[in-house]
Amino acid sequence: MKIGVAIDGSQNALRAVEHAVKTAEMFPETELKIIYVVDFNTANDERMSKEDTETIRQRVTQPAMELAKLTQAKTELVIYEGDPAQRIVQYVDSTPLDHLVIGSRGLNVVQEMMLGSVSHKVIKEAKCPVTVIK
After folding, report:
1. With contact defined as beta carbons under 8 Å apart, do 93 and 6 qualify?
2. Taking the CA atoms of the chain, what radius of gyration do you get in angstroms?
């Protein structure tokens, strides 16, 4: 079984990794794909936009990789740059996954209507089952 989990450094993303790890434990020979998309276009602060990719990778991916060590699943970290929803869907469509787990950013109703959410876009476009974790 191949399980993908999309991360963004948020607490909901870490909960998504925890869920993916628990799921991976139920199936022998599971592959766990941790997907992180660096989106410099919507960086909320100047510090993030000025950080180099390696620093961001360490800050965001290290907690997720530590959680992934809790399972015997073969784990791979995949990093892209660009629009998160678009890149996640491209990865899911090009890498046959049995399941994708993603955290909810927790937008309120108005924010989601105006901005949309990565998880909502991924649910609509991905060709595999998606679990959203709050």
Report:
1. no
2. 14
